[in-house]
Description:
alpha/beta, Spore Coat Polysaccharide Biosynthesis Protein SpsA, Chain A, 9-stranded mixed β-sheet, globular
Amino acid sequence: MNAFDSSYVLLTAAYNEEPYIEDTIRSVLAQTVRPSRWVIVSDGSTDRTDQIVQQYVVDCNFIHFVRREKDLSRGFASKVFAQRAGMQLLSISETPFIGHLDGDLTIEPKYFEVLLNKFKEDPELGIGGGWILESESGEFRQRRGNSVTSVPGAVQMFRRECYQDVGGLLPIEYGGEDWYAEVKARMCGWRVRSFPELKVRHNRKTGQAGVKLRYCYRQGFMDFALGSHPLFQVAKLIRRIPSKPYLLGAAARLVGFGMAHITGKRMVSQDFISFLQKEQLSRLWPR
């Protein structure tokens, strides 16, 4: 039996992460198992993100920096194109694991060591990661929406074979490339799991109410673009309404979903939509 190869590479797309990127870098440097290569792509940053990253490139030969100009016409898909630019510096055929890590996170020193052991224990685990914690009333708490069956795109780690089956990330104007990757992985027979014991701090401050509502409205378009079933959409948002302050957010997302039926477009195949909707309906009416 071949020995388990725990080597991995990391990819970070960063846009104006000056207040956070150094903490992210330091938390990776503190890992008990470091990546063999880490590509950080500045997606048109206009603050000191580039300078901060370049300071560490000098002394850390496994960190590589790429600068690209942000394409504002591509909306939220710009992040995916930045990641694709970074992928050109990664030889994924030579590494067993490919990880995405956002530039506003901090992780515990044994994060990757423990996560890689999860992959070792479960050969069918295709995508794995931790749970996001966000600051609330001065204390970091689990983010609403964390689930053991879903891995946030900010910390998705792929087994190489799964990444190849998924075909990489799909650039979607409204976001949701991480959701697409999870569903496609399950379509290909892989398991997707997140682990509550792997805590990830999200250091970026939450936006203002108006920004949140625009974000929720856009999520409705994302849900439509990826083929979410209308019944599941309504049921999901109704469940979230009692959780303040999500009432207006749920309404905005539902309005966006409705508007998308008029002006939006699907971004995935019919096979993908059928698989996703079958999953969603099974959650509504489990056997």
